[in-house]
Amino acid sequence: MVKITFVQEDGTRQEVEAQPGLTVMEAAKTEDVPGIEAECGGACACATCHVYVEPEWREAVGPPSEMEEDMLDFAFDVREESRLSCQIRISEKLDGLVVKVPSKQF
Q1: How far does Cα 102 stand from its chain's mean position?
Q2: Which domains does the chain have, with CATH numbers?
């Protein structure tokens, strides 16, 4: 299992465990992480699973695809560290990943 920590705007942390092969969004929805809406169900057709990847994890997570960048145009408060959690595939190299949940999704 891979551990992922979601940090809310108020600093509240929620650590979840997920199977490799799932996405960060799927892990968030399974564990009822507040603020991850995922209205499109992971099809990269909305921006309601937006997260901020902590700096030390950005290289391991990798850059967004062109399609993901297009969808991020619809997200609230997009930053350099913004990603759609439905596009981050969980692997063993992401064990310990920390992401922040934006104050709102849209």
Answers
A1: 10
A2: 2-100 (3.10.20.30)
Q: Which of 66, 45, 41, 62 is nearest to 53 (CA)?
A: 62
In this structure, are strands 82-84 and 13-18 parallel, antiparallel, or unpaired? unpaired
What's the whole-model pTM score? 0.95
Burial 82-91 (b: 16+ CB within 10 A, else e): bbbbbbbebe
Instruction: For residues 43 and 97, give the distance between their C-alpha atoms in angstroms, rounded to a whole number.
Output: 22
- Those residues whose C-beta lies under 8 Å from the C-beta of residue 53, and which sit 6 or more positions away, are 61, 81, 82, 83, 88, 97, 99
CB 5 within 8 A of CB 99: yes
Name the pairing type of β-strands 2-7 and 97-100. parallel
75-86 per-position pLDDT tens digit: 999 999 999 999
Percentages (nearest 5) of helix, strand, coil residues in the chain: 25, 25, 50
